[in-house]
Amino acid sequence: MPALIAIEPPRQSDVEALLRLSSEFTLALYPAENNYLLGLAELERAGVCVYVARAEDGTALGIAATVPLEADTLELKRMFVHPAARGLGLASQLLGRIEADAASRGIRELRLETGSRHDAALSFYRRLGYARIAAFGPYVGDELSVCFAKAL
């Protein structure tokens, strides 16, 4: 299913609904102290890009954001696909768009953190060429964090 993917403001009711579902999912797996989700205000900061994947009818089905880390490095945050839309290739399309946009802007590396209890995410990132790296930033010392990176 090809999705329409664009950078959009996070403060939209359907995007906020996906963010809530993402938060609920994450909080069901990890305690609050092991949770690094960005809130709406953080997603609205300068330099942060929120990508929204929509069905042809405009329904928001998936989200992801990029946050600048260094001049040539971005961090992927809030990657989430609505449970009803999983298995359709939307996450791959969303990440492919993000990687293409980043590379076109001179970004050399995309990094991310996911949790050790999220088997589907671990498998997904490995399948798309992401390699495990040492924990960085706020994830250093968190035994539930697993960090990945991919050169673009």
TrEMBL record:
A Pfam family that the UniProt record links to this protein: Acetyltransf_1
Protein's name according to its UniProt entry: N-acetyltransferase
Cited Gene3D superfamilies: 3.40.630.30
Keyword Acyltransferase: yes
Superkingdom in the source lineage: Bacteria
Xref: SUPFAM superfamilies: Acyl-CoA N-acyltransferases (Nat)
InterPro entries for this protein: Acyl_CoA_acyltransferase (IPR016181), Bact_Acetyltransf (IPR050832), GNAT_dom (IPR000182)
Native organism: Cryobacterium psychrophilum
